[in-house]
Amino acid sequence: MSKETVREIITKAVVDEEFRALLLSDPGQALMGYELTDTEKEEFANLKADDLSLDVQELEDRISRWGSPLGSGI
Questions:
Q1: What is the pLDDT of residue 71?
Q2: Structure pTM?
Q3: Is residue 51 part of a domain?
Q4: What is the tally of structural domains in the chain?
Q5: Is residue 14 a part of any domain in this protein?
Q6: Considering the domain boundaries, does residue 71 fall inside one?
Q7: Domain ranges, residue 19
């Protein structure tokens, strides 16, 4: 898993309204070209619009838990 890639995608989704809309409506298309594990792809497929409206610190906290046995992703 690449936390840098996950962080890049989330950051893009937060700041780029068109990408965010695509990620929420068609994650497979939005994530083409990114190297992600199946688990990461599933996490993105389960994103809701509210998940992308968190403050930056909460996003950072959630990103750090992706793939950890102690917490689910976003």
A1: 46
A2: 0.69
A3: yes
A4: 1
A5: yes
A6: no
A7: 3-64
